[in-house]
Amino acid sequence: MLVVGLTGGIGSGKSAASEAFAKLGRPIIDADVVAREVVEPGEEALAKIAEHFGEAVLQDDGHLNRAMLRDIVFQESKHREWLEQLLHPIIRTRIMDKLESYQGQEAYAILASPLLLETDQHKLVDHIVVVDIEEALQIKRTSERDGNTPDQVERIMAAQLSRAERAAKADSLLDNNTTREALEQQVATLDKKLRSLAAEEYQA
C-alpha cells in the first residue's frame, strides 16, 4: 500500500485537504488525533508527564491540561525536548499500527501530520504532499481562526520549517491561496495520480 504524507504549516489548510481526501473515501490517519490519544487518562505517557511536570498539569477529571503544558514547554526548550523524546516514538508506533490495519485493503492511505517533515514521521511515507500558502495569508487565516495575534502566529511559524524548505521536500504541492473549492479540485486530480502511482508500484 502506498503511504502518502500530507503536511503544511499552521493555517495552511492541511485539515481542509485532509477532509477532501476523506470525502473521496481515502483512509486518513491524523497525527494530531494520535497525539491526543496517547495522553488520554490511563495511558503510560500521561503518567510520565504528570511525574515529570507535577500533578498540576492534570485537570480535576484526570485529563491533561494542554494549555498549561503548552505554556511550560514553550518557555523552556529543555522541557519541549524532554516531551518530544517521550511522545514522538510512542506516536510513531501508534501511527504504524494504524497504517498496518489498512495494508492490503486500500490503494493508498493518508498520514496527515503538521510535523511530518520536522520529525522522522516522513520516513513512514512514500509520497509527500505539501499544502502551500503565502505566508501573509497563513498569518491572516490563523489569526482569524484561533484568535492569536500576528506576532504569536509568526513565533509558531518560526518554530516550523519555512515555506521554501517545506516545498522543496514535496513530491506534490497543493496550492491553497484561493478557495476551498479550488483546493478540493486539486485534491481530486491528485487522488487520480496517487491511485495510478499505487497501482504501478504495488499492483493495488
Provide a brief overview of the structure.
This protein is of the alpha/beta class and 204 residues long. The protein has nine helices and five strands. It has a five-stranded parallel β-sheet, with helices on both faces.
Strand order of the largest sheet: 2-3-1-4-5
Q: What is the count of distinct domains?
A: 2
Query: Main sheet?
Result: 5 strands, parallel
* Helix and strand pattern: EHEHHHHEEHHHEH
Q: Helical region count?
A: 9
- Total strand segments: 5
Measured between the Cα atoms of the first and last residue, the distance is: 7 Å
Reported CATH architecture of the largest domain: 3-Layer(aba) Sandwich
User: Please, what is the oligomeric state?
Assistant: single chain
CATH class of the largest domain: Alpha Beta
Arithmetic mean of pLDDT: 92
Low-confidence stretches are none
Structure class: alpha/beta
The general outline is globular
CATH homologous superfamily grouping of the largest domain: P-loop containing nucleotide triphosphate hydrolases
Helix fraction bin = 40-55%
Instruction: Tell me what portion of residues adopts beta-strand conformation.
Output: 5-15%
CATH topology group of the largest domain: Rossmann fold
- The whole-angstrom Rg is 18 Å
